[in-house]
Design brief:
Blueprint (H helix, E strand, L loop, with lengths): L2 H8 L3 H20 L3 E6 L1 H13 L6 E4 L8 E5 L13 E6 L8 H10 L7 E6 L3 E6 L1 H10 L2 E2 L2 E2 L1 E5 L11 E8 L4 H8 L4 H9 L3 E3 L2 E2 L12 E4 L3 E11 L5 E8 L1
């Protein structure tokens, strides 16, 4: 399948088409030169789009996603030649910004400060906020720019320095596990249990374009859901299907959901 047909099938918007076109160009560079090539940081939805595109292109190996630490949400797509086992250390650089007042800055404050400086979102990975510091995943020239010029966020003065990935402070995950039963392994049924909605309301949200299954928009309430899948609903949050068990005595599916707070 040629490039234009691939993009037409994989991309739903002009922004997605631009992103995926650039990814294909980077893959061609990696193939031609046999060197590591890294994309910008991608959201989970963009990662899913890129993975689908590569599989449609017949590419099943030679790439991975890396965001600086296990469990990162925003990651770079890494095209790695066979002589390189993992992404290079420079693929994701970690900056720690320290501030004086405890819990005075939020993720939103820090991201807003970076956007005000003209830093593009695609050059930033996760921002992990602690009581008096935040660790920011970034790469390339953006890291050098922030080391030299990022000195405040909101009313807080910042001290910014580069650290190693081993020094990262990863906040404890805020989530709870829900053991439940569902009448069927359909998206509307799982969404209903995960977010305490009626099944009719869950179906309405899905058909209204408010839900994603594995970071891809899904408008079908009857879409099958399996263990390991991620369900997100705009305005309500995210959950993952941790386990799908057998049937209860009433013929309902036993299920464990992980709901993120």
């Amino acid at each position: 399948m040629d490039k234009e047909k691939l993009l037409s099938r994989a991309a739903g918007t002009s922004e997605e088409r631009f992103l995926l076109g650039r990814v294909l160009d980077q893959y061609e560079q990696y193939e031609r030169k046999n060197i590591p090539v890294y994309t910008s940081f991608l959201s989970p939805q963009e990662q899913a789009l890129c993975e689908s595109l590569l599989h449609a292109s017949g590419v099943s190996e030679g790439f991975s996603f890396w965001g600086g630490y296990a469990g990162a949400e925003r990651k770079r797509l890494c095209f790695l030649p066979d002589w390189l086992e993992a992404a290079e250390d420079t693929a994701v650089r970690v900056l720690r910004c320290r501030f004086y007042h405890e819990n005075s800055l939020t993720h939103r404050d820090l991201l807003g400060s970076l956007m005000a400086m003209g830093v593009k979102r695609e050059t930033l990975g996760d921002i992990l906020v602690s009581e008096r510091s935040a660790d920011v995943m970034t790469a390339g020239p953006a890291a050098d720019f922030l080391l030299q010029g990022w000195d405040s966020a909101g009313r807080e003065a910042l001290q910014v320095a580069e650290i190693t990935p081993a020094e990262l402070l990863v906040p404890a995950e805020k989530c709870r596990f829900i053991k439940t039963t569902v009448s069927s392994l359909r998206l509307d049924s799982v969404t209903s249990s995960a977010f305490s909605l009626s099944r009719g309301k869950a179906a309405e949200l899905i058909e209204g374009g408010k839900a994603q299954l594995n970071w891809r928009d899904c408008l079908k309430p009857d879409k099958p859901v399996n263990a390991g899948d991620t369900v997100t609903v705009r305005g309500l949050g995210k959950c993952t299907v941790e386990e799908v068990g057998g049937l209860s005595k009433k013929g309902r599916y036993l299920m464990t959901l992980k709901r993120y707070e």
